[in-house]
Structure formats: C-alpha cells, structure tokens
Amino acid sequence: MLWCALAGHAQSFDQFFEDNTLRIDYIFAGDVNKQEIYVEQLYKQPRWAGRKSRLAEKPLNGNGQLTVRDHESKQVIYVCTFSTLFQEWLQYDEAKHVKKAFQCAYNVPFPKRPVDVSITLTNNHQRVVTETTHTVDPTDILIRPIGDNGIPFHYVHKGKSAASALSEKEKAEQPRSGQKRDYVATDYDPFQDVDITGNVDLAILADGYTEAQMGKFYADCQRAVDALFAWEPFASLKDRFNVVAVAAPSQDSGPSVPHRGVWKRGISGCHYDTFYSNRYLMSQNMHRIYDALSGIPFEHIMVLVNSDTYGGGGIYNQVTFSTSDHPTFKEVFVHEFGHSYAGLGDEYFYDDKDQFVKAVADNKYPSPPARDLYLVTHGVPTDPAVIAFLKYVLSEGQKACAPAGYIGLSEEKLQNGLKQLSNSK
User: What is the pTM of this model?
Assistant: First the structure.
C-alpha cells in the first residue's frame, strides 16, 4: 500500500501530543445541495491507542479528512481519513428533498498546545463539498474529562508486540461456546500485557445482548476473532492486533427491524432497513457508541448484533456492524470489516455483470468514469505482425471485450484507428 505524505519531515509524537485522547463529536447535516459541519462536544480520556509515528501521513483516501495543525507554526501534525453514513445518504433521492443530520466522532491524540482542527468532506470525485476549521485549546475548561464508564470489557485477543497471548488465568475465564452467565469483572488488570501503541486496537461492542446473555456475547466475539484471523493478511498479522470485547448490556434482546414493526432498546440504536434496504443494519448514533466505549483504547469499532438475520454494514474508519448467528456470520463479519478497516468498496451495485458493464459504458460507474486503454507504439508501426495485431484489436478482438468485463470501442473510434493503420503503410 502506498502512503501519501502530507508533511515534508518527520515529527516526534511527544513534541506535540501527550499520551491521552481528544474525542471530538461532530454533526454533519444538510442535503444534496448544501452540507454543513458542526462541532458538538470535546472530551479528554486516558491513553492514546493510535499510531505514534507517521502522524501526518494517510494510507488511503476516504470521503473525508481530519487534519490537525499546530496553531502557531501551522505545521500538519496529524491526519486521518474516513467516510460517513451522511455522505452515503447524499447519494439517495431522499437527500434531494429532505435535510438531515448525522452524528460522527473522531479520536485524535491530545495536544500539548493549541491546534487547528480541519474537517473536509469530498464527493466521489474527491472534490471538496464543505469544510470547517476550529481551534482546540487543551486548557479549555469545557473539554469534558471521561474515562471508565463501568461497562465490563475483556480482551479476547492480545497481540504479541509487547507481551504474549492471554494468560492461563484469562484463558480459564473465557466463556465456553454457548455458555450463558452473567459476566463478573475479574481481579486482574485488563490492560496487563497489552501493547496499545504497537498493535492495532479493535473493539467489539455488544448490541442486543441483555445482561443474562453476556456469556453468549463473549463466545460470539471469540468466533468473530477466529473468523477474522482465518483470512489473509490478518492470519499472518494476528500478533499485531488487540481485540477487546465490550459487554454493554441492552434492555432488549435482538435488534430493531422496522419493516416488521419491531423496535428494540439496544445500546447503539442500530436497526435494519437503513436507507430502506432490508438487510442494511447500521446506526446513526455514533456519539452513543463512543460513550459506550469510554475509557477503552480503540482504533476501530465493530458492533456485534445479537441476531440470526442476515445483515450488516461497514463505513471506512467509522464502524462495522455484523450479526452473530446467521449461517454466513463469519464471511459477513470479515466482509464488513474490510469496508471499515481497509475502505474496500461494495459489490452490490448491480445484479449481474451485464448491468455492471453497461453502467461503465454509460459512465455511471466507477467514479471517476472508466477511461480508454491505449496501445502506444514507438513511431508509426511498420512491422507487418504489429499492424496485423492492431487490426485484430480493432476488429475481431472487440468480441472478447464484454466477456472479460471490458467495454468495446465505439464504431467511430474503430474506424479512426483502422484509417490510421491504412495511412501508416
């Protein structure tokens, strides 16, 4: 993966940041014609779980970017990219007629001195549609300190950068598959032997599990972890990940299913029928999700929903949703994690290849539209074999385009190409 540098020189984490987290809650609002960004609340919580090097670099583009600059020098000192449910909603017809607001939240390392935080939202062509910049003074008395919220949590996997796997005592306390019990916090330090900075920190949040179902939740988490680390590249890199299960109890068992008239009181407020798609399981309540994870060091959020109905969703650098008991649970969990962790695109735009190929031909997909492929020669071709090959490409060879997923050249381009070949003799 190529990394794009935004700063011309390296920097030290300790130069600009302390080992704590600044959580910034935002509201993204508007419609297809105009979008706005609002700052809602700032929080400070212990420990920083993200990277401490290459802070001003980004691995890939999303549909948004958060940039932190030192207020005095204007140097870029931290960057992260993301996508949002709000921007996805803007692609739907509803956004042409209704204005809506969506919650978002982002963690950044807590600054030692004032910084300027910029949020930029872009469209699918990477053109900026709205942006805002606000200054954060770390001494601001209205930055609310938060920490442990009393929700039990348990590491189901620890990376080995600083220490080994779960201790024998921890292994003994792991719930067996299907075991139902009330979880009781253990007497060991849950952060013992956890390398928060050296590893990628994943948090699995329970949703639709009652207090009495937490044994099942921990067992489901272990199945999820086993599924994730069964696939490459995660299998080879499993020692670089920490996975913590956060046992937030819901008042009701299971998720909300609006098309059946079923509404449950879950911890994240998630429901099926997001954007009126039956299987799209998602939540707009990102602030509530972050509240449930208060005090937990994390970089990526996975919400595991207690349901046997197919569904889920993943937003890049935002959140993953997956159900626990559908027969395809393992595949869906890894699939949705690919969206949120690596920004992988979805494949459900079209029902078959013919629809997809037609969409490319009509310049509807992908974004930006598909471009022509060119055959380049060194000067005018004179070799009879080269000329014969080019004629084949411009005639019989076109029949091989559609089966291979390519778009054939227009009749005008074919005739122009053949004319150029005739002139080259």
Answer: 0.75
The whole-angstrom separation of Cα 412 and Cα 289 is 55
Burial class (CB in 10 A: 0-12, 13-18, 19+), 123: middle
Q: How deeply is 281 buried, as exposed, middle or buried, from its count of CB atoms within 10 A (0-12, 13-18, 19+)?
A: buried
Please report, rounded to a whole number, the percentage of residues in the chain having pLDDT higher than 90. 57
pLDDT at 72: 96
Where residue 214 falls among pLDDT bands split at 50, 70, 90?
Answer: very high
**Tokens 């046992």 sit on residue:** 247
Strands of 100-111's sheet in order across: 100-111, 17-30, 35-46, 144-145
Q: What is the pLDDT of residues 321-331, one digit of tens each?
A: 999 999 988 88
Residue 322 phi, psi (nearest 5): -150, 150
**Residue 205 · residue 246 · CB < 8 Å:** yes
Please name the residues in contact with 291: beta carbons below 8 A apart, sequence gap of 6 or more.
Answer: 149
308: number of Cβ within 10 Å:
11
Distances (CA, A) of 130 to 56, 103, 142, 213, 294: 21, 16, 26, 44, 29
Q: What angle separates helix 214-228 from helix 329-342, to the nearest 10 degrees?
A: 70
**What is the pairing mode between strands 76-82 and 64-70?**
antiparallel
Q: State the number of CA atoms in the 13 A half-sphere of 216 facing the CB.
A: 19
What average pLDDT does the structure give for the chain? 84
Up-side HSE of residue 421: CA atoms within 13 Å toward CB? 21
Q: Which two tokens stand for residue 331?
A: 């595949």
SS3 of 414, please? Answer: helix
Determine the pLDDT at residue 401. 73
pLDDT > 70? residue 245: yes
Spell out the residues 6+ positions from residue 113 whose beta carbon is closer than 8 angstroms to its own.
16, 70, 71, 72, 138
Per-residue pLDDT tens digits for 334-393: 888 888 887 766 555 555 566 666 666 665 554 444 455 666 666 778 888 888 888 888
Distance between CA 34 and CA 182 in Å, rounded? 48
pLDDT at 207: 97
